[in-house]
Each structure stands twice: as structure tokens, then as C-alpha cells.
Amino acid sequence: MKNLVVLTGAGMSAESGIKTFREMGGLWEEYDVMEVASPQAWENNPELVMRFYNERRKKLLKASPNEGHKGLVELEKYFNVQIVTQNVDDLHERAGSKNILHLHGELRKVRSTVDPNLVYEMDGWELKIGDTCEKGSQLRPHIVWFGEAVPKISDAAIICDKADIMVVIGTSLNVYPAAGLLDYAPNGIPIYLIDPNDVGTGNSNITFIKEKAGVGIQQLINILKEKYSLND
Ligand code: OAD
Which CATH architecture group holds 1-17+65-104+150-232? Predict the structure, then answer.
């Protein structure tokens, strides 16, 4: 089976009711990113940072995967699908996708502030001051903040390097190193980009599907079925 690598961003979950970051009405219009999503913010005002992520988690628990997430699961019938997501939600998992790499962390996990290897799943939505790891230190959101290293970027680059087909969905490609992953796609492979708005890529080899994720993925499935003569 061919390797189909999918890079997803906030737009992937927009139809599930999760806000994107940089659009009008997006999260970074409502909040100053450095005040809620940086190591400095955590040092200066951990309550505010926790409240921000608690709010996100609470909303996520009420959200469900959309047609776009489900379409990516359908693609597993025909391809070896590997998802590399910038999203911290668990909607790809809940839709049933098998291979998911979270570049920017996971909202439903927390981790120790003294030992980054101590990562815990959360049942509910609320993380509080005084919630500690087994070594007694405060727990923090398991999120990659601005100014922090992206530990999984090398794994993601290796995955992209092995792609036979690449699909980019719902990301403004503004945030590095994630946006640079497109450069790891082998020269000449087909690349599809699904987004209802224009996204600049600097790559001329891209087929744009200017639709929301739900409709766009159905179109992509039809394109790929025809191109590779795939039968149900
Ligand atoms: P952005 O908010 O920057 O971009 C969202 C993209 O989704 C835009 O290109 C929209 O046009 C598109 N979009 C909106 N609705 C859509 C829909 N229904 N279907 C498909 N696409 C849609 O979000 P990201 O590129 O994901 O990092 O942002 C990258 C990172 O910046 C995030 O992971 C987050 C943020 O700061 C951290 O918090 C570390």
C-alpha cells in the first residue's frame, strides 16, 4: 500500500465546533498567545494558563469527530495513512484513525513539571494548582508552548520523507517547524491541500481543494480512487 501522509491543523476540527487560531474570531484574537501558551506565562500566571486549557478541554469533551476525521479513516482502506497533527484534540483518535503523531501535545494529557516522561491521561476537564505527579511536583498541560522545543519533529520529518502522497488540511502553515514539514515530501509526489481559504505554500506542485475539511475529503477520496483505480 502507498504511504499517505496527512498534515492537519485547527481547520480539521472547525466543523466539530473547535475554534481555529488565526482566523477572524479565532483564539489568538481573544487571547494574547504569550499570556496563555508560553513558559513565561506558566511562570507568571499558572492559574490563567490552566484556566485557558481547562476551557479548551471542557469544550473538547462535548465535541465529536466530523465528516473530515471520518473520511481520513475511510482512506485507510486504500492507503497506509499516517496523520501528523498540530491539533491537541483527540478527534482523530475518536474517529478511529490508527496512526497519529501529535506535534504540539495532547489536551487530554498532563505531565510532571520535574520529569517530562511522567505523562498522565485526564478523565475530566479540570487541572488545578495542587494537582501533582507521583514525585510531588505540580502537573502542567501536556502542550508544546511557544518557545519550547517540538520533541516529535524529527519523527514527523522521517514520516514525511517516506510519503508517496501528501495531504494538508486546515492549517495556515504559519507555525514552524510544523509548516516546514512540507519540504520533506519527496520531490514530485502528489500533494493535496484542503482549505476553504487561500494558503501560501511556496510549493508549485500542489493541487488545491478549496473546501472545508468534510466536503474536501470526500472530493479527495474520489480523486484518489480515480487516479489509482481503487475499488470499494
Ligand atoms: P490556524 O488558525 O493558523 O489556521 C487554520 C486554518 O484552517 C486556516 O487556513 C483556515 O482557512 C482553515 N480552516 C478554517 N475552517 C476550516 C474547515 N472547516 N476545514 C478546513 N480548513 C479550515 O491554525 P493552525 O495552522 O493549526 O499551536 O495553527 C498552528 C498552530 O498555531 C497550532 O497548533 C497552535 C497555534 O498557535 C500551539 O498552540 C502550540
Answer: 3-Layer(aba) Sandwich (3.40)
